[in-house]
Amino acid sequence: MRRNFLILLIGLIVLAPVPFLTDTYVLRLGTTALMYVSLSLAWNMIGGFAGYPSFGMAAFFGLGAYASGILQVNGFAGPVGWIGAGLVGLAFALALGAVVLRLRGHAFAIATLVVAEVLKEITNAWNSLTGGGMGLNMPYQKMDPIAGARIYFYAMLACATISLAATILVAGSKLGFALRTIKQNEDAASMVGVNTTTAKVIAFALSGALGALVGGVYTSWINFIEPADVYDPLFSIKPIVMVLLGGSGTVFGPVLGAAAFLLLDEIVWRNFLETHTGILGLVIVLLILFLPKGLGSLSWPRLLQRSAR
Amino acid sequence: MADTLLEVSNLSTGYGDVQVLWDVGFDITRGETVCLVGSNGAGKSTLLRCLSGLIPATAGGFRFEGREMAGRSPQDIVAAGIAHVPEGRRLFGPMSVHDNLLLGAYLRHDKDGVRRDLDRVLSLFPILAQRRNQAAGTLSGGEQQMCAIARGMMNNPKLLMIDELSLGLAPQVVEMLSETIRAISKDGLSVLLVEQDAITAFELATRGVVLDSGRVRLIDATAKLAENPAVQEAYMGLA
Questions:
Q1: Read out DSSP for A165-177?
Q2: Does the model's ipTM exceed the 0.95 cut?
Q3: pLDDT-based confidence at residue B200 (cuts at 50, 70, 90)
Q4: Residues of chain A positioned with their CB less than 8 A from the CB of B106
Q5: How far is A38 from chain B (nearest CA, A)?
Q6: What tens digit of pLDDT does each residue of B156-173 get?
Q7: Domain ranges of chain A
Q8: Which pTM was predicted?
Q9: Residue A43 in contact with residue A254, Cβ under 8 Å?
Q10: Whole-angstrom Cα distance, residue A203 to residue B140?
Q11: Number of neighbours of residue B127 by Cβ within 10 angstroms
Q12: What distances in angstroms separate CA B101 from CA A32, B122, B159, one per listed residue?
């Protein structure tokens, strides 16, 4: 655990000066990457450690985005909105988890998938609070664009740091151990005395709180949210792909996967403007096919050995 | 009845609308080994699942050390001292033997006691000490059964419930496991043994409960059961 925190610290030291060395294009890319790193780590809590295939990340992201947006429109400062978003996400995940975590496998996946759709419809219909389909504009803030870009880079960096620190703590704790036993054999876990319900609900609540926190920061960063944007099913699916790409149920796999996915996305998009989604999909399918345990499972010494032969 | 450990009375349970057990009643004295005999589908495994809290009782209940335990969670039941060695072993395949054993002590906080029990089960099953860092899924069937029993014992239980001790194992391995069961019951541990092979079961246990279509048909000393013509015909392949 100490080694993992050391890696996190080194990562922070490397990333800290970035906003003062680059332009807004790179900053925007970096902020997006940190956002997906956080979402991947959040999904990994329930999907990776416990093996529960949640498709609910968009629900938490959107809920957090709107909680933060509504607080800010009503005069609260950005950070208050973000913390509020995290708390709303936590409460919602606790309530939702108590119900849907009774399901397993495909049934659980479908149940979580529809939650974002339901929330989207409610947000659309609740005009007085959410602005409905017109979306929600954040209060205008007079800020230099580069200063704004820097602030939100650091805000997302904070989200990613919190997510990674939580992941490291969970992975090294009794809770992490319990989640891994649930993934391997839930009945047997129960038989040796693991309180499977509590462990699952905590993991789901952490996942939801982190997802909502990221959504809350997203609102401030983008300044405008609408239901179809923040409840986009892609917010559910991309983190799953990233985690699978990097290594499910590991600590740094989600970080690696999110970075690799966005790097590939950017490279493919630049070179194949017309067909880039198709080619990106193909590359990811191939990677997952040949590296089922993710990029994190690549052993560089062995690769070098093999190529030397 | 001197010092009853487990007392099951009028226990009924099932899965949804399907009732599996009707009015099951028997008891286990401290230190005693009792076997449950019955054909496929008689409800043996269901009874164990109910006693370990995995499925709720629909009627009746069971008392463990005088405390009513029906309706309690599996965690409470494990903490009270009932360990379940499930059918088909149910080990955590990718985890090491060592981690599987420690999982049996998941609810315990006495580190010294856990270490002592770890040494004890490793001396009971020396092969597990050799395979300590190997993934449990790579063990042979017999070794996996040993690992599952050792995992159950890591909880330092008062009652060890073993489902299908001999299923799919070589006779030599069954003989070895039987020796171990005798050794641990000599240490004062009560064992509830579910076994299809009635001959093995009768050798190990002092009393037997015969379950038929979800109802208790007979309870008697195993020596008497072994001589009962009906039991011989139905479960021992003798006529």
A1: HHHHHHHTSHHHH
A2: no
A3: confident
A4: 174, 178, 192-194
A5: 28
A6: 999 999 998 888 888 889
A7: 21-245
A8: 0.83
A9: yes
A10: 34
A11: 16
A12: 44, 10, 17
